[in-house]
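Hi support team,

I'm opening this ticket because the web form for multi-chain structure prediction keeps timing out on my end. I have pasted the exact lines I submitted so you can reproduce it. The total is 223 residues across two entries, so I didn't expect it to be a heavy job. Is there a limit I'm missing, or should I split the entries? Thanks in advance, R.K.
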Amino acid sequence: DVHLVESGGGLVQPGGSLRLSCAASGFTLRSYWMTWVRQAPGKGLEWVANIKDDGRDKYYVDSVKGRFTISRDDAKNLVYLQMNSLRVDDTAVYYCARDVTRGWSPWGQGTLVTVSS
Amino acid sequence: DIQMTQSPSTLSVSVGDRVTITCRASQSISRWLAWYQQKPGKAPKLLISSASALESGAPSRFSGSASGTEFTLSISSLQPDDFATYYCQQYSSYPRTFGQGTKVEI
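Hello R.K., no limit was hit. The queue was backed up. Here is the completed structure from your submission:
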């Protein structure tokens, strides 16, 4: 069964850092692009970043460029999102998802990041 | 960036109704469009890809269509399990963008 589990969320002050992890199981991680998507409380979905299957290409939404870094460790079946210089408007549930070219499936259950003083 | 405009924002319907949700792209995205269903407190689930391809496991009452830059998600006969928020998303270019969502409620 294909499964994704995010972890690493929590409460952080503005300007702080967090690293999110996404543990993959049930499929060969190195064969897939992977994606992070976020959802602010009561709001819609926003794509954040994705990473090519070989890790060489990465893409980001403008609002996180220079602050967030996506990476992967296929040997550990993990995908990461390093988030630095966090802002209040980064507060959201962060989901990881497998990119199946025609869309994203499945998604993890999400991890909540709250940026507040 | 490609803007995805979904309508309506909210749809008040009854079980058994036919439902139609529209998503318009600000420029051509060919058929690089997906539809997701999200229930409260849950992760989104991929329903339709390539504008009209039903994902494995998705009920056949869901269908998608495309005409130029306008895309439609239809539910032929709404079931209680279908009350949710639906999002369109383009994967033609970066940044990937979503519509603002359509909440289907009683």
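A quick check on our side: The longest strand of chain A covers residues 18-25. Let us know if the file doesn't open in your viewer.
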